[in-house]
Amino acid sequence: MHYKNLLNNAWKFTSKVASARIEFGITDIDGKKACFIKDNGAGFDMQQADRLFTPFQRLHTVEEFKGTGVGLATVQRIIHRHGTVCGLQAEVGVGTTFFTLNQLKDLRCYTQKHPSCRR
Asked: What is the pTM of this model?
């Protein structure tokens, strides 16, 4: 569910970019596999990053982008309940990258309904 929410955010915040780009993949962070979703959308000021995970806090106006401000708070709760870590990098007008440190088994569960997934 959290990947769906992050992909929906990427889709929303690239909606005003002429040549939108959204990437989903796996990378290494400090020797651990991390899933990431990267876009070239609106981005935001990293000094405001803490507000992203607080319910009903928005960094963009409703006129700019629709939403309630609960999506990323929900994502963070899901990620923490699974014992994983969420991180991000962003720049205004350049885009945003969200990443989660997951095991590959978890990634297959969410993306391919892998038989090893017991959810």
From this structure: 0.71
